[in-house]
Amino acid sequence: MWLSERFCKTATRGMFILGLLFLASAVHLGLEQPWAIFHLGIGFACCAFGTAIYSLRLRHRAKQPDASAMPHGMTGAATENAAPTRFRLELLRSNLDRGSERF
């Protein structure tokens, strides 16, 4: 399922801020109240969930190649083979240059 980037950023930040609000309400109620412990647990869970989703999102984005560095029209499987092909062409050119010096 595809979700927009704006929604993903907003949802993770919103979850973290919601967790902070729950933590603040737990402190405001006083930790001796039974509802304060509930708010404390929900606050920690929301902060942990927001942080985990944000870090997973950053890891996923780090794995993706930079689209601006790729030639126009190269996407998908073509981007995976672009660097080895470029390397092979440079190796072939250098071998051809060395070969022409011998003869």
Primary descriptors:
rod-shaped, single chain, mainly alpha, 103 residues
Structure description:
The chain is an all-alpha fold. It has a domain at 8-64. Helix content is 79%, strand content 0%. It contains 3 helices and no strands. It has helices spanning 5-29, 34-63, 77-102. The longest helix has 30 residues, at 34-63.
Terminal-residue CA separation: 60 Å
Order of helices and strands: HHH
The main sheet comes to: none
Q: Fraction of residues in helices?
A: over 70%
* Overall outline: rod-shaped
Q: Could you list the spans in which at least 5 consecutive residues all have pLDDT below 50?
A: none
Give a count of the beta strands, DSSP E runs of length 2 or more: 0
The fraction of residues in strands falls at under 5%
Number of helices: 3
What Rg, in angstroms, do the CA atoms define? 26 Å
Main structural class: mainly alpha
Average pLDDT over all residues: 76
Topology, element by element:
Layout: H1 5-29, H2 34-63, H3 77-102
Can you give me a brief rundown of this structure?
The protein is mainly alpha-helical and 103 residues long. It is built from three helices and no strands.
